[in-house]
Specification:
By secondary structure, this protein is mainly alpha-helical. It has 28 helices and four strands.
Length: 587
């Protein structure tokens, strides 16, 4: 499911997942964790289900995230000047899935240790398109591309991919530093709901043209896609179908499975793909029509069976100031978004609130994952998948071990090239229909942060309106007047062009500045409610027990007193470093 679109009803899922305090039922496969756990969950965060159950539960997480990964190359690859039938498109998807598995394992094992999936995000597409919109990186005219040889075409898109890889990897160092060095604690006072709302909402609003272009291939197919998705996800979520299951105490039994609630996007894609196949076989769609199912079959034929992605596979990453500063906008948007996911996921798993050291470590690991994604040449970064957070609430399975198994499945799929190629041949109008829902839900998720502020305040309405509308005006004008900035320094011109063309950066900066400069009470700005929701207190370490501790090496960490000064260590004691510095200064 494309990134963010299970925010459809996410608040309801959160409420269902938290439930009333009570005791979890005894279920087969529990090997670790408390025998009885507070919260309405089948498997808590520290529980280890039987291996065969882990495989099926992990497959659920894999199927939930695969749609989000597939959606990104449909926008990225054309911007890189790649042909629709280029077999390397499937290799890019395989690389994204491989890195997703690798980073997810790192995050669940040594990062924040919450059962969250890390993977590609649309937040990085906005600065990516701004960078590739610079005169130096625009695609050659269509006739010129058609006249090129295969090697020349490959050089065109790989040079652009190397530029993105370097920009992503270097920009990720900011998030890595922000997390591991505990800077987030001092920055949160400036990151308010009126900063989050325009930053995240503009991710979806900026990409509406790509949804229109994809859907315009066949509006009937696109309309059928978002209609079915709406019916399945919003109207049939409570409909269950009978399925056979096996339980240790009862053997084979019939259970009612919430198919439409768990797999609305997959069902929609399969049904509309069959519709396109029928139209293709019946000859209704002319040759070359974007809705035909035989348009890109050559991609599967050309894709290798096995291919292991590796760093620098498209060439050595290149770095430019404009590219790095542009990608920082994507890094900031992902950081703000992930902060809100951590406490939500913990509540869903019936786990203690994540302490500050776990959040610091999670953000640092996310930055490390984004750097790896850049070096591997995925053309994207990493972020917490909202889809999988929602899946935990639906399935009542919050086991960390299940997500670790899912990470293994992702790594395996990332090296099987033909599996990645299958997703590339989805007809474009189907993707356009999904985009119409996905980009809208991203915008809605950003606007949901406004629930904390006083919407009767003219001050807040002014900030919201201006920080949403002006970035759209400025970035659209910048795209139409690419050479308008002429400072006399070419590098500076490129930097300003990218920054002013990145709507999420302009909107986020405006929202942050206006909210922190224009006078307003804490209640009016929603600061009290926001602080209570986040609950990012270092004291959570004592409540978390060993849930957020490292799986190995805790004995050494406890014996080494210096680890209590490091903001990402489980033994971290907030304020201890400041007190030590003050004592030395006084002496």
């Amino acid at each position: 499911m494309p990134h963010h679109n299970v925010h459809i009803g996410l608040e309801n899922i959160v409420r269902d997942a938290i439930g009333e305090p009570g005791m979890a039922d005894e279920v087969p496969g529990k090997q670790n964790g408390e025998a009885a756990r507070t919260g309405n969950v089948t498997y808590g965060i520290d529980d280890v289900p039987a291996w065969y159950l882990c495989i099926f539960m992990a497959l659920q997480h894999y199927l939930t995230m695969i749609g989000a990964i597939v959606a990104i190359p449909f926008i990225l690859c054309p911007a890189l000047c790649m042909r629709e039938t280029d077999p390397d498109r499937s290799n890019i998807i395989s690389t994204m899935i491989f890195v997703t598995g690798l980073v997810t394992w790192l995050q669940t094992t040594f990062g924040c240790r919450l059962p969250i999936v890390q993977g590609g995000t649309i937040s990085f597409l906005v600065p990516t398109l701004a960078i590739l919109g610079l005169p130096a990186w625009r695609c050659p005219p269509g006739d010129a591309l058609d006249a090129m040889t295969e090697e020349q075409r490959r050089l065109v898109w790989t040079s652009r991919m190397c530029e993105l890889s370097g920009a992503i990897a270097v920009a990720a160092l900011f998030q890595l530093f922000l997390g591991y060095f505990g800077v987030i604690g001092s920055l949160l006072r400036w990151v308010t709901p009126l900063t989050i709302a325009p930053t995240v909402a503009l991710v979806g609003l900026t990409l509406f043209e790509h949804a229109a272009d994809a859907a315009a291939g066949q509006w009937g197919v696109a309309a059928g896609t978002f209609t079915l998705l709406t019916v399945f996800s919003q109207c049939m979520g409570g409909v269950k179908i009978p399925t056979l299951s096996w339980k240790r105490d009862r053997g084979c039994a019939v259970e009612w499975f919430p198919l439409f609630k768990l797999f609305p996007v997959l069902l929609t894609i399969v049904i509309m793909w069959c519709v396109c196949l029928a139209l293709t076989l019946a000859g209704v769609l002319p040759p070359g029509h974007p809705a035909r199912t035989d348009l890109k079959l050559v991609i599967i034929e050309d894709a290798p069976w096995f291919r292991v992605p590796y760093p620098g596979q498209w060439g050595a990453p290149t770095v430019s100031v404009a590219g790095v500063l542009g990608m920082l906008a994507g890094v900031l948007a992902c950081t703000v978004e992930s902060i809100s996911y951590y406490p939500t996921t913990a509540r869903m798993c019936a786990a203690p609130p994540p302490p500050l050291h776990a959040i610091n470590r999670g953000l640092g690991t996310e930055g490390l994952g984004t750097m790896l994604a850049g070096l591997w040449g995925s053309g994207n970064g990493t972020n917490t998948f909202g889809e999988n957070v929602g899946a935990i609430g639906v399935t009542k399975v919050g086991s960390r071990r299940v997500v670790q198994w899912a990470a293994g499945l992702m790594v395996l799929q990332g090296v099987v090239g033909k599996l990645g190629a299958v997703f590339i041949i989805i007809p474009q109008p189907i993707v356009g229909g999904l985009f119409c829902v996905m980009f809208g839900m991203i915008s809605a998720f950003g606007l949901s942060a406004l629930q904390y502020v006083d919407l009767n305040s003219s001050r807040n309405l002014y900030i919201i309106g201006f920080s949403l509308f002006f970035p759209l005006v400025l970035t659209r004008w910048m795209a139409a007047h690419s050479g308008v900035i002429q400072t006399g320094v070419e590098a500076l011109d490129a930097v300003l062009q990218v920054l002013l063309s990145t709507s999420i950066l302009v909107g986020g900066v405006l929202g942050c500045l206006l909210d922190n400069l224009i006078p307003g009470s804490a209640e009016e700005r929603g600061l009290d409610a926001w602080a209570q929701e986040m609950s990012l207190e270092a004291s959570g370490a004592s409540q978390g027990g060993d849930t957020y501790d490292f799986p190995i090496g805790m004995g050494l960490c406890s014996r080494w007193s210096w680890t209590s000064y490091l903001p990402f260590m489980p033994t971290y004691e907030a304020g201890k470093f400041t007190a030590l510095f003050k004592r030395k200064k006084d002496s």
